[in-house]
Write a structure and sequence with these properties.
Elements lengths: L1 E4 L15 E5 L9 E2 L14 E7 L9 E10 L3 E5 L1 E8 L17 E9 L2 E5 L4 E4 L6 E3 L5 E8 L2 E2 L6 E2 L5 E6 L9 E5 L4 E5 L4 E4 L12 E4 L8 E7 L6 E7 L4 E2 L2 E2 L2 E2 L9 E2 L5 E6 L6 E6 L10 E9 L8 E10 L1
Parallel strand pairs: 1-27
Antiparallel strand pairs: 2-17, 3-14, 4-12, 4-15, 5-10, 5-11, 5-17, 6-9, 6-13, 7-8, 7-12, 15-16, 18-29, 19-20, 20-27, 21-26, 21-28, 22-23, 24-25, 28-29
Length: 340
């Protein structure tokens, strides 16, 4: 394994913005699941117009190195508009004392709560049925990667003008709720395994894989993976797998998948005889390792906690030196990129 520490100077770098990562729980299908009026409220007058709900989301669905949650979506059951006298959403870490389960006392479930939406009045538009519809959060929440997440929703005066109020729920996410919520109730019913299906958009600590690699002499395409997304002050292991044993393997490390000097990326390597292979990153650093008997080469990457690096996009691509593959004797993997 090759260990690398990056004292990167970024003052002169032009850094492209990384696309956000989307996390759906318990799954990404917005068209399945029982329809429930908790937590968004019902159509008719009554207790379902005023609800406080907490939903527990396991830490395992988020990057272990931490992330910033910038958007939240629910799985809309039908077309229509929710209109609220008020809507308040908080995100928080579950306190260690709760040991992975919600209390019926709302305050006991919140550690470091951040209000990410607080509007009076508020309109939430379900434009397409059986699809994820974003709420429109006004603030971000920094998830530490080490604690379960609690989504706390307070609605007052809910009214839905469509045919079927509510959103799709899960059968695995724990929830507690209080109907007829008056703004002061300290406790709710539960916990029940009936929390709403949720989708989060992450604006940090995210990781994307781009493109495909090309086939090596063993008939396989080298596969680049990271065990956790790169992050400030963190470390990750980049693995180039599906490599023939003992072959020299390189990791190209850069900060752009758009340009490399005068070249526009991605850049086809067909012209040098590496048919189907593509260079997808600029190359600021190169690291080398030898593939193991199981066909993988690993590179441990360690990133400093320098605030100047915040927001920098980092890119990486594996290159295997395979003399039998083609004329130049090299094959490439897909690209991995993340924003620190």
């Amino acid at each position: 394994m090759h260990r690398a520490v990056f004292p990167i100077v970024v003052a002169s770098l032009v850094v492209p913005r990384l696309l956000a990562q989307v996390v759906s729980v318990p799954d990404s299908n917005a068209a399945i699941g029982t329809i429930n009026i908790v937590p968004l409220g019902g159509k008719a007058a009554g207790q379902t117009q005023d609800i406080r709900t907490q939903i527990l989301v396991p830490k395992s669905v988020f990057p272990a190195v931490g992330s910033k949650i910038r958007e939240l979506a629910f799985a809309a059951a039908s077309v229509g508009k929710y209109q609220y006298q008020s809507c308040r959403i908080q995100l928080a870490h579950l306190p260690d004392a709760r040991a992975g389960t919600l209390s019926t006392t709302f305050a006991q479930n919140l550690a470091g709560a951040v209000t990410v939406l607080d509007k009076t009045p508020f309109t939430y538009d379900f434009k397409v049925a059986d699809s994820w519809q974003r709420v429109g959060l006004t603030s971000q929440f920094s998830h530490d990667g080490n604690h379960d997440l609690v989504v706390d929703i307070e609605i007052r005066g809910a009214f839905f003008n469509g045919t079927s109020p509510g959103s799709r729920r899960s059968s695995t996410l724990e929830t507690v709720y209080a109907l007829g919520y008056d703004g002061k109730m300290a406790t709710g019913y539960g916990p029940f395994l009936a929390g709403a299906k949720l989708q989060f958009t992450l604006d940090n600590g995210s990781l994307l894989y781009v493109g495909t690699g090309c086939k090596a002499s063993n008939g396989k395409v080298p596969l680049l993976t990271f065990d956790v997304p790169p992050a400030l002050g963190g470390k990750t292991t980049a693995t180039v797998g599906d490599v023939a044993p003992s072959l020299a393997t390189l990791l190209f490390f850069g900060t752009s998948d758009q340009t490399y000097g005068a070249w526009k990326l991605p850049f086809s390597l067909d012209g040098i005889g590496a048919t189907g292979c593509t260079l997808r990153t600029d190359v600021l650093l190169i690291f080398g390792a030898t593939a193991s008997g199981s066909g993988s080469a690993q590179f441990q990457l360690v990133f400093p906690s320098d605030p100047k690096l915040s927001g920098v996009t980092v890119t990486a691509q594996g290159v295997v030196l395979d003399p039998k593959a083609n004329a130049p004797g090299l094959v490439t993997s897909r690209l991995g990129k993340a924003r620190l």
